[in-house]
Write a structure and sequence with these properties.
Length: 155
């Protein structure tokens, strides 16, 4: 059993909240980014370990970004338009920049409105996977560290 502020939480409730955090981040689209703040702050307010929350949220969001990268790498526009709701014209505009910046562009895949487009474009131009994945991890992780530190400083 887990105790939070004197309240006993059984293992199932604890696991549901942790799963909610990772799944909300995996399935999040960068067009709608405020949910992660609510889930993260909620768990931290319940006295969950903030750094464990950062690791879990970063992992989920990173895996989601890698999935988008993978869809781009496969280059099946039917899947991209069906599952990501991204039109080919939007991505074509970013192809030149992806060729210019390569894997380093992964640092900004967390940005609202363009993050998934960047991940997808990186896959389409087939940037090197390992550096792309590491830059994506770094950029996405720093976002969660920032929000966690901000919350901990305010509250």
């Amino acid at each position: 059993y887990y105790y939070v502020n004197g309240w006993e939480l059984n293992g199932i409730v604890y696991r549901i909240r942790i799963y909610r955090l990772i799944f909300s981040q995996f399935f999040s689209i960068n067009y709608y980014t405020s949910e992660f703040k609510v889930v993260m702050v909620g768990l931290i307010a319940l006295k969950f370990n903030p750094w464990a929350c950062v690791i879990i949220a970063t992992s989920g969001n990173w895996l989601g970004g890698l999935t988008t990268y993978g869809l781009g790498y496969l280059g099946k526009w039917e899947w991209i338009e069906k599952h990501l709701k991204i039109k080919k014209e939007k991505v074509e505009k970013l192809r030149y920049k992806m060729n210019k910046y390569g894997a380093v562009a992964g640092l900004v895949t967390w940005l609202p409105l363009v993050g998934d487009l960047i991940s997808l474009s990186m896959g389409l131009v087939k940037t090197k996977f390992i550096p792309s994945a590491l830059f994506m991890l770094l950029g996405r992780g720093l976002r969660y560290v920032f929000w966690t530190l901000l919350y901990l400083q305010i509250f």
